[in-house]
Amino acid sequence: MKFSGDSSRVGDDGAYDEFLKVMMDFQAQRIDTRGVTTRAKELFKGHTITLPFQLETTG
Hints:
Elements: H1 15-27, H2 33-43
């Protein structure tokens, strides 16, 4: 998975850094695809405009 590097879309709440940690955990096989999905949904909650339709969250 590639991320654009434009952290302005996710705000200044540390979400970009946390997202990078999630991706590093996945690359190091510390978490699986389900773990990435779970963590990403929580991380981007309220930022549904940046998520694909299937991953949109409420709240």
